[in-house]
Design goal:
alpha/beta; Rossmann fold; Immunoglobulin-like; eight-stranded parallel barrel; 17 helices; 36 strands; globular
Length: about 725
Amino acid sequence: MKFSCKFVALLFVTIIYINGFAQRVSKSDKTSFQTSHVWEPYIDSRADIAMVYGVEGNPSDRHEGRQSTFLDRVNSWREKGYNVQFMTGIAWGEYQDYFMGKWDGKCHLDEGQKTACGDTIWHGANVPYIVPSVNYLKYFEQRNIKPVIDGGITSIYLEEPEFWARSGYSEAFKKEWVEYYGFPWRPQDASPENTYLSNKLKYYLYYRALRTVFDYAKKYGKSKGLDIKCYVATHSLINYSQWQIISPEASLASLPCVDGYIAQVWTGTSREPNYYNGQKAERVFENAFLEYGCMQSMTAPSHRRIYFLTDPVEDWARDWSDYKNNYQATFTAQLFYPAVDHYEIMPWPERIYEGLYEISARDHTKGHIPRSYSTQMQIMQNALQSMPLSHNRVSGTNSIGVLMSNSLMFQRSPRYSDKYDPQLSNFYGMSMPLIKRGIPVHIVHMENLGYRKSLLGIKVLLMTYSNMKPMNQRSHVQLVDWVRNGGTLVYISRDDDPFQNVREWWNTDNNEYPRPADELFGRMGIKADPSEGYYSYGKGLVCVLRNNPKEYVMTVGGDKKLIETIADLYHTRIKKERLVFKNNFMLRRGAYLLSSVMKESVSGQPLVFKGKFIDLFNPDLPVLEKKIVLPGTQSLLYDLSAVKNPGHPEVVASACRIYQKQSTHNQYSFMTEAPINTTIAMRILLPRKPKLIKLRKISGEEIGLNTSSWDKKSRTLFISFESQPSGVHVLIDY
């Protein structure tokens, strides 16, 4: 049976007026993006959620923010069927009415974060990074939360609760110091102890800010009969520590008002250089893998929802080739965490589709996103809609963890003597030697040790107090209990940094330990300041190495001792699991096969897959019988052998969203939607070679194919055509 033009047009009307909206209404929440713009066809990504940014817009996008009201922007996305939610900054934003005295008649520019020189740290013109005073939080609730809830928004995202480590000198901060500590303010650059106390306060202030605002949002929403969900969009602990920023991070898991997170990991964070084998360099995939792992560890024990972010571009101007290669790296890294299946597919689609960047490192001509890249990007993003949760694990030894604490952010600035930690090398000294040998290191947050699952499956745990300190005694109780029950703890530190003797719980009240590690060792009957060696406790073992971990990565071949020690532990104690060294990671998630092959590893051999695959990093979606993944690259393959019902027609890969699928014994039809001015490519599994392919606009007007081809061996059809603002109906006779 063939559709008549009249029937097709009627079908489209039915589709586009579902629930009274102009297009389909998303009932899913699997994918999202953030934007400060009204709906436009060129940024219509067809994700499930549109997070409309800022009541007054985005400070980086003033013109658009002033062109339309918040409700105008919200309604423009609602009318297109999006699940509309709200995002804004908590530490900065378009809040000039507060700072310039229009809210309460008082100027509040003194509440900006200030350096020792008295300079305010700005995010933009009259947009300072904020010391979140109680008065500011009241303003924030009334001007940025209440009107949003009044507009029917039920999900609120507050992003980047950030306090710069180099700040801490404003009058507002000095006032908070006195109220928190009960004694006069001290300049943080005067001593390590002052630094620690200052950063601990910064940490608390944004913990308080989020708790206060989210409690208000939930209470006010309840008064209107709404169940408000509250999320924190934040960088990883790794990145904030690298960039010398303080944020509450894992401690937010203790707040019942926090429903989840967005893991703000992208090329811009993951390309921060680090040391390995004596070389300082960008290691984007490896760093992204650790960052996403850090974020998952922060949330997994509490079962809070988390969205993983990727960005096809980044904040700093690069070339399109650079963007594409690093996008592939970060995109693959996020998929290696099969317990996460919610994603923010992009921030700011307007800068992706309309931004002008250099074509390549050799071609400095500026242009819009290349069609090949936009098609590939959309193929990757639409794959996320069907990316399943999985109990599979990344290939390799999955029982090694690295311990982190939020206090990692406290020792970064200012520097003291020669004991500083360049590029966070004390962390990378424990993690990068293992990652580079194909060991998928698990990050463990000290703040989450109270959750039973935080150390589940971990047999060897690496830790140091060279770069962080325990923020409470409970974490030591929990670590000791884990060792007693059979865990192997590897403690790596010289304990010689200037923060060892800051005034804290391990040397106050009834505790008189000169170093925090001594309190930990004492609980296991190990003498203070033990020598390098092995110490038994209960069913477990403590291995003490008297190096600072940075020594393992800042010199050529410096990690030999660490690797030999871990290999010995697995040989003598962890006999039920092999320690496997390789140069790659692999993971299967349903029909999706992921891989990454690393440079600077145990070999330079490529990874080879044989079978029948669709290459999702290629905009032409070729069917391959052999895929070679070279060192320094990643792959995302759709394995056709994993299709459960190969005789049933199905779009298995596409650069567009697919809706209204209908299938008979000889016909397959569906509707496609994608941003305008993009080329749609798709590969379709069919029982037989097609006899007829028809593409029509909503008006019934037929449009042409760019290309089509039939692959007999895989029984798949490839078609390509140009997107249309209202969608394209595809009808295939076979």
